[in-house]
Design goal:
Chain lengths: 290, 378
């Protein structure tokens, strides 16, 4: 029976891993402090859920989720292209609120707070991934594809230019690189994979509503990126495992029921603080967060 | 590099040791206990509901254990905090309760989370919530879901009837944008249509909003007979009532029964005096419940779900006493029997797992002299 619990945790790790490595492209490699990442996750989840409920096959839903999220990435990239640091963070956070408000208020499409129930589990070549173990295999496969695709992008010439833009945008532009185009692509790629994570989440839980995509959801994802270290894929994997699993052992500490909620949260926060105190650049960080 | 590796290994080792030590926790031979899972909000905005509910459940279980347990077996609660409306965290906690602790029945969650209900149905686990009003928002029929909260249709009908009797026939709705407020509003609209009451307009605010002045100024211009305030959280109600007084709006406020919480009286009772009206379930054994609760905890329940949570625990214990052990046996028992209840006297579930409307009576209450009391005119 314990395997089912571990399988569930492993599925969450896969979903968060895709979400976090996608954010690495924007934050770690391009230096774009994007706090609107959850908006892309939300767009992906809703796009996938609506298409799945309309009877489209899983692969169509998955790819469409990525493409629609990528388009929304371009939408936010265009007006914010000249912004950096805190200003970009505020603008992208605003975008997150806009997408949340749309999910909440466009009730004809999203059913608003009532959410979308009964999202079907993935079906590929007639095989339905209704069992969690089967879903885990699918999630691992998708996470691996995303991981290697993003790793390849990061180590390509395009990735190197992104790193150059992160370190010195002016110098990169003097060298003839179109930083506007590069940053737009970076945000679009990041959003594409966040959309894929959203699609996977929607088909796993089989229900989505706007409460799953509040701005607060960015905290664990950003924590993964910072703790793992900026621009480090290896660090992101380890940090994802730590962040997803860290609350779990605390469930087994026998706190009195009257303090169980706050006590666990305090310990969780303290552990995160300790990690950052001892490793301010994150576990495998190459650059510092400005 | 060496430090990094040591650091990583240390963290992994700590997680692994606690994790697997916990996972291997089992009942010791000779002390077999009946385990009941509890999945409540003990942190965040919903904690004012969840903490009271936990106390209600604990009180019921302590009574059962003091009386010798269930056929000699003690009852053990395994409590998990879900945060507030955090679906992924709640599902993880549910998976742990089901697959590690091996529970067949879970009391919770606090506030509606249809995603969690979907997973519980899939896992075939009995989920009995003290305060859910939706279950799931689709047409799907639920097998394993139950709620001991009062039926919303009947509550809103009682409120609409009260409005009609007092000639409050022009109403404006002010609500949160969450699932609870959405459903409450839907039920209220059905009820006012039935009573031929006119709704002048509806204003939605993002959940958590505490400044309603813009909406209230617009409402004042509409000159309604009453405002229907549909909120799940306790935090906006006090500021709303205060701002109504500040803007000199002399309009009565109709509310859903979740308004009946001690925190409102503690902080905003002067603004609620003779202003707020709501249909409260006529808690049949209210005095008995409150005296037991106060004797045990030296305080009144803060949130409104404590007696409902007590009822949920008693229903489960009754099922266990009749030798129902698996989730299928428990759900069949719950669907086919009536149970002693603090709130309803006798509790019976309908085919959707909600409290049967027949057993619920409502009384209109208001705030007078810093207390929730029945409205004398009703």
């Amino acid at each position: 029976m314990i395997e089912s619990y571990l399988i569930h945790l492993a599925i969450l790790i896969c979903i968060y891993l895709i979400l976090a490595i996608a954010l690495q492209i924007a934050v770690g490699f391009s230096g774009l402090l994007n706090l609107g990442h959850i908006a892309f996750y939300c767009v992906g989840a809703y796009a996938s859920a609506l298409l799945a409920l309309a009877g489209f096959p899983f692969w169509v839903c998955l790819i469409a989720a990525g493409i629609l999220a990528m388009l929304s990435g371009f939408v936010i990239a265009l007006p914010t292209n000249k912004l950096r640091g805190d200003y970009l963070a505020l603008a992208t956070m605003g975008f997150s609120f806009v997408v949340y408000a749309i999910a909440l208020n466009w009730t004809d499409l999203t059913r608003g707070p009532l959410g979308l129930p009964g999202i079907p589990r993935p079906k590929i070549f007639g095989f339905v991934f209704s069992d969690n173990l089967a879903f885990l295999i699918l999630a691992i496969a998708i996470a691996l594809i995303c991981f290697f695709a993003l790793k390849r992008i990061a180590s390509s010439q395009f990735g190197k230019v992104l790193e150059a833009i992160r370190d010195d945008e002016l110098a990169t532009r003097i060298l003839g690189k179109n930083s506007f185009k590069m940053k737009t692509f970076a945000l679009g790629i990041s959003a594409f994979f966040a959309g894929i994570a959203g699609s996977l989440y929607a088909s796993y839980i089989t229900f989505i509503d706007p409460s799953s995509f509040t701005i607060l959801q960015i905290i664990p994802v950003l924590a993964i990126v910072i703790i793992g270290g900026l621009a480090s894929f290896r660090g992101t994997i380890i940090a994802t495992i730590i962040i997803v699993l860290l609350p779990e052992p605390m469930r087994f500490i026998g706190f009195p029921s009257s303090i169980v909620g706050p006590a666990r949260q305090i310990i969780y926060a303290l552990l995160l603080l300790l990690i950052l105190l001892f490793r301010p650049k994150g576990l495998f960080g190459k650059v510092e967060l400005e | 590099m060496k430090t990094k590796i040591i650091f990583g290994i240390t963290i992994a080792a700590i997680i692994a040791i606690i994790f697997f030590a916990g996972c291997t926790q089992q009942n010791q031979p000779g002390e077999e206990k009946i385990r009941i899972g509890v999945l409540l909000s003990l942190s965040g905005d919903a904690a004012f509901f969840g903490e009271s509910e936990l106390k209600g459940i604990q009180m019921a279980v302590d009574e059962v254990n003091e009386a010798g347990g269930i056929n000699g077996q003690a009852v053990e609660l395994i409590v998990e905090d879900t945060g507030t409306l955090n679906t992924p965290a709640t599902i993880t906690a549910l998976q742990k309760l089901v697959n590690v602790d091996g529970v067949s029945v879970i009391i919770g969650p606090t506030w509606d989370m249809p995603g969690v209900t979907e997973v519980a149905e899939k896992e075939k686990i009995v989920l009995i919530s003290p305060d859910n009003i939706v279950g799931i928002t689709g047409e799907k029929k639920l097998e394993y879901f139950f709620s001991t909260w009062q039926p919303q249709k009947a509550e809103m009908l009682a409120l609409a009837k009260f409005a009609k009797e007092r000639n409050l026939t022009q109403i404006v709705i002010l609500k949160d944008t969450d699932i609870y407020s959405e459903v409450i509003t839907k039920r209220f609209l059905e009820a006012v249509n039935q009573q031929r009451i006119n709704v002048l307009g509806s204003f939605s605010v993002i959940t958590g909003t505490k400044d309603f002045r813009t909406e209230l100024i617009k409402i004042k211009e509409m000159k309604p007979d009453a405002i229907m305030a549909a909120f799940v959280s306790e935090s906006p109600r006090g500021p709303l009532l205060k701002q109504i007084k500040e803007l000199d709006l002399k309009t009565p406020v109709l509310a859903n029964s979740a308004v009946e919480d001690q925190a409102l009286l503690n902080n905003f009772s002067q603004y609620a005096e003779n202003t707020v009206f709501f249909a409260s379930p006529n808690i049949v054994r209210e005095k008995e419940f409150l005296s037991k609760f106060e004797a045990k905890y030296q305080t009144k329940p803060v949130g409104p779900g404590a007696p409902n949570a007590y009822d949920a625990a008693i229903a489960i214990v009754t099922a266990y006493k009749s030798e129902a052990r698996t989730a299928d046996e428990i759900k069949t028992f719950l669907k086919t029997h009536t149970f002693p209840s603090m709130t309803f006297g006798q509790l019976q579930f309908d085919e959707n797992g909600f409290v049967s409307s027949d057993v619920t009576k409502f009384v209109i209450k208001t705030v007078k002299n810093g207390q929730f009391i029945p409205y004398e005119g009703s």
